[in-house]
Amino acid sequence: MSAGTHLSAGREALARALSADARTEFEAALAEDETAEALEGLGLSLRVLDAEGSVAARERAFRLYQETGDAKYANKLTRRARNIEAQAERAQVSR
Questions:
Q1: What is the 3-state secondary structure (H, E, C) of 36-87?
Q2: For residue 69, is it left (φ>0), alpha (ψ between -120 and 50) or beta?
Q3: Helix axes 3-15, 36-49, angle to 10 degrees
Q4: What is the pLDDT of residues 34-78, one digit of tens each?
Q5: pTM of the model
Q6: CA-CA distance, 33 to 1, in Å (whole number)?
Q7: Cβ 46 vs Cβ 21: under 8 Å
Q8: Residue 54 CB neighbours (<10 A)
């Protein structure tokens, strides 16, 4: 399969909340071509499976979006990271 096919399958798996399947598809896409989109998808799939790996993948995606001049998606990742941090803080406070 092509990287694009793996990206599509990964997005579909995320939409169905199948994190492990999504991870497999995004990793396969990355084996073909390291793109910001595949790294972002991997980061999202890892939120449930591997928090540290999720952060690392999203940081790499952010850098690739910046390198390619895609400020819109770089900013989207920044906002998403802030939302995740805020959720984690609220969860800590409620304990």
A1: HHHHHHHHHHHHHHCHHHHHHHHHHHHHHHHHCCCHHHHHHHHHHHHHHHHH
A2: left
A3: 40
A4: 999 999 999 989 887 887 888 888 888 888 998 999 888 888 888
A5: 0.73
A6: 12
A7: no
A8: 19
d(CA 65, CA 70): 5
DSSP 90: H
Is the CB of residue 4 less than 8 Å from the CB of residue 34? no
The CATH number for 3-94, chosen from 2.40.128, 1.25.40, 2.60.40, 3.30.9, is 1.25.40
Q: State the Cα–Cα distance between residues 29 and 51, nearest whole angstrom.
A: 20
Q: Where are the domains of the chain?
A: 3-94
DSSP summary character for residue 17: T
